[in-house]
Write a structure and sequence with these properties.
three-stranded antiparallel beta sheet
């Protein structure tokens, strides 16, 4: 969902670097996968096609923070109208 964001803090040999990956368009989401020594953050379309991929070595990742898109609290309320029979 547009607005999904992932922050990855990586050890860069005595220094730390922070990378922010964000879903760029409506209908896209971020998937986080880890395994075989890698951490992957993939931006995926509604149909499941990967658009962008960021890969990090798992032993260098210090922190991984996922920020889901915020729901609009001022959204419209759905009211069902019923007709008297």
């Amino acid at each position: 969902m547009k607005g999904d964001r992932v922050e990855v803090v990586v050890d860069a040999g005595g220094d730390t670097r922070t990378y922010e990956i964000e879903a760029t368009r409506a209908g896209r989401r971020l998937d986080v996968r880890s395994g075989r020594g890698l951490v992957e953050v993939v931006e995926v379309t509604r149909g499941g096609t990967p658009v962008r991929t960021a890969r990090f070595m798992a032993n260098r990742v210090i922190a991984l923070v996922e920020h889901p898109a915020t729901q609009d609290p001022g959204g419209e309320e759905v009211v069902t109208l019923r007709r008297a029979a």
